[in-house]
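Batch job 17 of 40 flagged for manual review because the log was empty.
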Amino acid sequence: MGEISAKAMMDEIGQAARAASAELAFASAERKYAALIGAADAVWAARDEIIAANAKDVAFGIDKGLSDAMLDRLRLDEGRIRGIMDALRTIAEQRDPVGSVIAEWDMPTGLHIQRVRTPLGVVGVIYESRPNVTADAGALCLKAGNAVILRGGSESFHSSTLIHACMVKGCVQAGLPAAAIQLIPTRDREMVSEMLRAVDYIDVIVPRGGKGLVGLVQREARVPVFAHLEGICHVYADGDADLDKARRVVINAKTRRTGICGSAECLLIDRAFWAKHGAVLIEDLLAEGVEVRGEGEITSVPGVVAANPDDFGHEFLDMIIAAKIVDGVDGAIAHIREFGSNHTESILTENNAVAARFFQRLDSAILMHNASTQFADGGEFGMGGEIGIATGKMHARGPVGAEQLTSFKYLVTGDGTCRA
C-alpha cells in the first residue's frame, strides 16, 4: 500500500468514525448495553473459529521470533475467550458514564451550573500482540459513547479480525452504526503513521504495547496521547513486613505473568528485613526459576547474577528481576524516583505510618500496600476491562476505563439572566 492509498483509507475510515461518533454521543444506555451483550454472545459462538485463527497468529509470531512472554500474550484458548466474553458482559453491566453529573452548583446571579460527562469523540487504539484488546478497547469506547479506530498488531491480525467482526455484529443488531468500531484491515505500518497524523478525525490515541511502539507514538503523534512508556514496577519489602505475606506477594508479582506491564521488575529489600530474614525472598525467586540480578550483599547468594547498572530501570517482561538492599522506606523512595516509570509500586509492611509515607511521597499512577503489582489492571479495579494504563498527569491516569474515556461539558441554566 502506497502513501496515497494509505491516506485515502484513513480518510474513509476517519470520516465514517466521525459520523458514527455523532450518533453514539446520544445513543441510549440500553442500546449500548444490547450491543455489548450481543458482541459477547457472538464471540462465544465463534470461539472455535477464533481459536483456529489464533493458531495462525501464533505460528506467525513464532516465525517472527517473539519471546515466550509475548507469545503468551498472543495465545487464545477457550478459557481466555471466556474471559473476553466475561469482560464484555462486565463492561455492559457498568453504569453508563455519559450524561452523569460530576458536579452542580448555583451562583448568586441566578445561574444553575452542571458539569456533565460527555464522550471524547473518536479514539484511536494502536496495540501489539494481545487480541483481547480488540474487544476491551472496542467495548470501553462504545460504553463511553465514542467511535473507535483499532490498529492491532500484525501478530494478532487473524484473531483480531474475527473478534472485531463479533463486535460489529453486536452493534448492528442493537441498531448502532457498524462504523462505531472499526479495525484497520491491513498490516501495513503506514496506517500507524496516518493515524498519528489524523487530527481531523481522531481526538485521542491510546498506544498499548512495548516501549518501541509507545515511544514511536509519543514522538510522532500530532493527536493527543494517553500512554505509559514502560511498566517498571517495584516491590519494596520493609523491615516491618510480614514474612509470609511478603513471600507470597513477591513471587506472584514477578511470576504470575511476566509479560504484562504490572509484572514486578525490581525488588527492593530494607536492610532491616535482610537482617531479620536473610535472603529468603531472593531464594524463593531463584527456586521459581527467576534470574535475579543483584547488587551488593545480594550477590553473595548462590545463583544470583551481578547486576549491571542498566538492570535497574529496565523492563524485562521475562523471568528476570533486579534486586537491591536499601536503607528503609526513604531509600526505597529515592530509588523508585530515580529508576521508576510512574506505573505501579507496592510496599510490603505492617507499619501503617511507613505505608502512608510511601503513598504520600511517591507519585506513580498506582501505589499498593501488601498487594501484588499484578493487580494493576482495569478488570481488577472493577472497570470490567481497560484500554491501557496511563502514567501521565493530564486527564486520564492509571487504568483507563469507560469513565476515563469521557470529557465533560458545562450545562448552564438561567431564567432570562443577564450579566451586569
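Reviewer: the log was empty due to a logging misconfiguration, but the result itself is present. The mean pLDDT is 94. Unflagging and moving on to job 18.
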